[in-house]
Amino acid sequence: MRPLLPLALTSLLFAACSQPPAAVPRDATAPPPEVADAPLAEEVAAPPDAGPDAPPDADVAEDVADDVSPDVSPDVSPDVSPDAAPTGRLPCAPDAGMPAGLHLRLAAANLTSGNLQTYEAPGVRIFQALRPDVVMIQEFRYSAGTQRALVDAAFGATFQFVVEEPSTTGIPNGIVSRYPILESGEWDDPRATDRDFVWAHIDLPGPVDLWAFSVHLLRSSPDVRASQASDLLARIAARVTPGDHVVVGGDLNANMESEPVLSTFGASLRVGPPYPLDQLGNNRTSGNRSRPYDWVLARESLAAREVPVRVGAWCYPAGLVFDSRVFTPLADVAPVLPEDSAAVNMQHMLVVRDYVLPMP
């Protein structure tokens, strides 16, 4: 792919928060550390030709049109009322009810915001609050010099990451991991000109490794998305041993749960309900909460070990779709602000699923 061109400064991000020990059940109630106010340079890819006659890149224009406008607006509210009775969460059982083992939090994240389609303070605060262990991240539009700073700010200085080599107009995929990345790479997606499939072989504590795949499928048609899923599954089958755990996460751009892309993924991954929900019972992840774009899909060996996502005193039995506009109490997810999920041009909502794996 073509190298990233020089990029421009955009906004302030927050410094990394401390991470809890991985073997301890995840709880997002711990207060965050103090946040440094030093600026971090965020960078955005420039078009290959800035002249007035340069044609727009079709795939980038497609994503901006469908993922940001008109689907997301600072004036858009989610299609649920904060006064509705909570249906997506239940009071948590005592800690003794959580299985022993390695508690693993996986997330899919397309949280860029602002007018330059980059990761800004609202998305960083959400990462800091929910503290995922492995994130399949989309639109990681940063040069090598600022990728490390963003990971440090959002996740922590000990986290490792891999990002595909972006094109000059690209919206590259990436994977961020608390645990060592043994090997990684990208597989060409012949249907997309501005991003590929990114993978990482992750060394989890215990006897079984995790293979994570970060994807951002096209908006062009359901059939195209299904063919992209079929291509990815074929490559996974050829590369990953049956005994290892597999997770595919990211922006599938699915307009409904019955789309062919999900039935295609269902041949190898668990895709059916129950789905991750916000506390009001909404599983949709687009900016206006109308479409199920973002997914965390696990191979059955991992899916069978799913446990509720715990945040404060509440548990989300099949995972959490995080929306600061409806989440209460926000004190449980400091430093998130009420308006973070409604930031200007905020792409999607964070999707989180938790698993407990046996330890040796």
Give an overview of the whole structure.
This protein has a single domain (68-357), classed as Deoxyribonuclease I, Chain A. The protein has 6 helices and 15 strands. Strands 2, 3, 4, 5, 11, 14 and 15 form a 7-stranded mixed sheet that branches. Strands 6-7-8-9-10 form a 5-stranded mixed sheet. A 3-stranded antiparallel sheet has the order 1-13-12, with no helix packed on it. The termini are far apart. By secondary structure, the chain is of the alpha+beta class.
Protein topology:
Blueprint: H1 58-68, E1 90-91, E2 102-109, H2 121-130, E3 134-137, H3 144-154, E4 160-163, E5 174-177, E6 181-187, E7 197-202, E8 210-216, H4 222-239, E9 245-251, H5 260-265, E10 294-298, H6 300-303, E11 306-307, E12 309-311, E13 314-316, E14 320-322, E15 350-357
Parallel strand pairs: 2-3, 8-9
Antiparallel strand pairs: 1-13, 2-15, 3-5, 4-5, 6-7, 7-8, 9-10, 11-15, 12-13, 14-15
Mean pLDDT: 80
Number of helices: 6
- By CATH reckoning, the class would read Alpha Beta
Number of DSSP E strands = 15
CATH H-tier superfamily: Endonuclease/exonuclease/phosphatase
Helix content: 10-25%
What would you say about this model in short?
Helix content is 17%, strand content 20%.
Salient structural properties:
360 residues; alpha+beta; Deoxyribonuclease I, Chain A; 7-stranded mixed beta sheet; 5-stranded mixed beta sheet; 20% strand; disordered N terminus
